[in-house]
Amino acid sequence: MKRIFTFLIIVAVLFLYFWVWVPEAKRAESGSTGSLADIQAKLDALRVQAQALQLQISLAPGEQVIVTSTVPGYFRVVDSCNWAWQGGCVNVRTGPGVSYKKASVYLETSGSQPARVRNGQMFPITGLVRGADGRMWLKIKIDRSAMAFPGRIHGDWYVAADYFQPVQFSRITPERDAVKSIKVVLHEQKLYAYEGDKMVKSAKVSTGSGDLQTQTGHFHIFAKYPVKVMEGPLKGLTDEYTLFVPFSMAFYRSDQGMAFIHAAYWHNSFGSPHSHGCVNLTFEDAEWLYNWTPDPGIRQIPVTVVP
Q1: Is 187 an annotated catalytic residue?
Q2: Where are the chain's structural domains?
Q3: CB-CB contact of 279 with 264 (8 Å)
């Protein structure tokens, strides 16, 4: 039955594309109907409707799609276990309800590991579903095309909405972007944010330890990700891992990959070295810095790392 519904969706989308969207776009270009922006808005709305229908037919009887979006929103975990797995950890499920099996992360050497969430984690969310028991569930977006080890996550991931809060992104002093800069002092394990000569923020950090020291030098923030999937192992240096890392800002490339300034929810060692070369911050400090840092596609602010 689901295959039949999927086939009907494909037919409907093709019909809309060739007999509605393309003709309307051509009329818009010729000036005979609404603007291209209006047409794009209609297309976006239709994509959301198609996504909602696709999600609905994947659900069991009694489950209902409440909201979907082609652009993910971001939600943080607020009522689960802490960084050390202390307290009741919230399980990820393969469907919208506790009757579904618990999700896992499948590591090549270590085998299946339970997918559980901790306070301070953040996920991209593309759907809100009411389960058969009336409880609300968030559907996590899993972008396997952006993963180095896409086979580690099987199927869909859902989490109960009552353990999460939405994250708002709000720029901080954008009028001062031209004079912003970041300095990391390794021997202090501190990060400083400046607007011109004025320090506007300081925070404890955890930088690289052991053989994975944070590189010193002069860099720039060249990419920003609300959530970046980071994976290992780093050959001969680290164990396997798959982490959904909040507020990730890339500032350095090396043979091992990119180094980021980001939040860390898996330790509480801020003020001492603990990372694989990145600059770790608390969730709150990383959120502030992310909102303060301009879009690197417009302006790449300098980052200086000193011993």
Answers
A1: no
A2: 2-57, 64-166, 174-306
A3: no
